[in-house]
Design goal:
The protein has 167 residues and is mainly α. The chain is built from six helices and no strands. The longest helix has 27 residues.
Length: 167
């Protein structure tokens, strides 16, 4: 079993391209957050308990917070980043697998329903991205998909596709 040593002891630093890509993604998330929040604020008010901005507004705020955190992280890592060509093994194959998972999700959503399709998408994506324990990724996928289904379909009243099992 190998032991992971801190960066100070190994001398390994982050790849400059990875740090810059993280900063770019964080910036894009901030721009998306502004657009989502502005659109959410412009939604018309309704007489219902939960208005149409109930979901997009907090999602936009969270999107902005994560984008800002990525920018701050990238800025601190950029000082020590070195040019390099470290790339994950089979990266292109993983990306193709994720695209295939998204296509399968779109095709199977009306057949299997939201919970099963979303749980499978989450689990496959997590495993392709290197989740250390596949059973845990599957369990998290089921829990997250069921929670989203309950909130949107049952609580808010937005109908999500149900499969042959009714969820």
């Amino acid at each position: 079993m190998t032991e992971t040593l801190p960066v100070e002891q190994t001398g390994v630093t982050d790849d400059r391209r990875t740090v810059l890509a993280t900063a770019l993604f964080g910036g894009l998330m901030l721009v998306a957050a502004v657009l989502v929040v502005v659109d959410a604020v412009r939604l018309p008010e309704t007489s219902g308990i939960v208005g149409p901005a109930a979901v997009p507004l907090p999602v936009g705020v969270l999107l902005g917070a994560v984008g800002a955190a990525l920018l701050v992280r990238a800025r601190t890592q950029l000082r020590d980043a070195r040019p390099g060509s470290r790339r994950p093994a089979h990266g292109a194959l993983r990306v193709c697998g994720m695209v295939a998972a998204l296509v399968a999700f779109a095709l199977l959503l009306p057949v299997l329903g939201y919970v099963v399709s979303s749980a499978a998408l989450f689990a496959v994506t997590a495993i392709l991205l290197g989740a250390p324990r596949a059973p845990q990724a599957i369990a998290y996928g089921w829990a997250l998909a069921a929670l989203v289904f309950l909130v949107f379909d049952r609580l808010i009243g937005l109908t999500l596709p149900t499969g042959p099992w009714g969820f």
